[in-house]
Structure formats: structure tokens, C-alpha cells
Please model this.
Amino acid sequence: MGKSPDIRGPSGLWLKQSTYVEQPTVQFQYEVLLVAMTGADPGSFLAWSTFPAFNRLQEDQLRVPLISTREEDKNHDGKMDQLHFKLELPLQSTEQVLAVQLILTFSYQLYRMSTFVMQSMAFIQSSSPIPGSQLYVNGDLKLHQRQSLNHCGVDIRYNVSVINGTSPFASDYDLTNIIAAYQDRNVTTVLSDPNPVWLVGRAADAPFVINATIRYPVEVILYQPGFWEMIKFAWIQYVSVLLIFLWVFDRIKIFVFQNQVLTTIPVLPVSSYKQHQS
Model:
């Protein structure tokens, strides 16, 4: 896909920032971290993740869910367009879910200008004072930039795991710490407009179910132009201003002479004057 005509940055002859449109290459990494609150007390929760070190820390709060996923290429262009994610958390008849927090991780790649590769995440969170039977989420995995990307080269500074899954320390799995470290990045993804629907009325032997549809939309990427693109843009601006100036100047000149706005004195050429004298 080509560049967008949208130009950002200070006005003037020099192009500071520009944008282009690209469909990112996104893949679900099959990394999951789930925390489900079953009561108001600090220890009233169930948890599970795809990281064995985290699971070992949970002891009695560990509960293994059933997960099914499917990524779909709707327009058959070779790039995935959305993820269908379903998690079924088994519960005892006396247990209930009042809130859930879920992290899913993704590989996110761009190639149109520079090669940009990062590990990113979607954070899903919902709660209700009424015990739930199911949470339904439908949103877009949107790119969020606080910094322009380069116009060329390879950028892998954020191609690191969102969650340190090999750490034996509980602090590395604390959601507050994970999100704080993630938000320190200048480029991230966020789950935009998730529109969570909290359903109630769970049967005693039924699991709590999370159904999520996460789309991977086409993005408008902010980038810093290269030297020659800046020169080309500046030249176009200069020529445009010059042509307007020349046209206005020509109209003024014609008006001045046709309407005799200024007093003019005709002067004979020097050669003609000398021939007259002789």
C-alpha cells in the first residue's frame, strides 16, 4: 500500500513527519495470563498462565482452563485479519466470578518502510457486582505511537517478551508491573473499543467462559521521512510559492502600466539619440 498524503509536523518547507498505510503482520503467540476474582478478599482469586513458573507460584489458586483459538485470513491476502479466542474456566458449584483480567501476547510486524518487529499484548479487563457466566469482547488491536518510526532499516528494540515467563519471582507476574513496563514503550498495541458484555446466570456445573474476537486492522503509520523525501517536499513547496509569486507580480506589472499608476517618461535609445545629433 502506498503513502498517505497526510502530512504532519510544523508548517514550512521542511517535512518533519509523514504517514503511510499498511496492513501489519500479526500472529497470536499463544501466551496467556489469567486472573479471575471470586470474592472481595485478597486471596479470593483463581489464576493460570502458559508460564510454568507463574503456575507454580499459585498453589491452591491455580485452575487450568480449556482454551481454543483460531486466526482467520478473511480476505486471503496471506495476512491474518482476526483472532477468535475462547477460554472456559471450570468452577466449583460454590465458586463465582466477579472480575477477570486477561493478557494475550502477539507478534506485530511492519515492512512497508522500515522493518519493525515487536512483541505486544492485548489487555482485557471486566468486572461486575453480579457473578458472571460469560464475558464477550470484540475489539481492534490498534497500534499506538508516541514516536515516529524510521523510514528505513530494522527496528527490533521492542522484540522482547511482554511477560518474563522464566522468572521465579512473583513481582514479574504482577499485572501492575507488567502494564507499567509495557506502557514505558514508545510503540505499543492496545485493544481498542472492546465493548465488553458481561453475561450472568451461570449453571452450577458450568464453566465461566471468555469469548474474544480481536481484529488486526489496517494502520496509519507515523514515520520520519528520509533526506531525499524531505528535499523533494521542500522543492515542491518552493516551486509552488515561486509560481504564485511570479503570476501575482506579472498581474501587478500589467495593471501598473495599463492604468498608468506610476508616471513614466519615455527615453530614446542612446544610439538613436547620437544619430539625431549628427
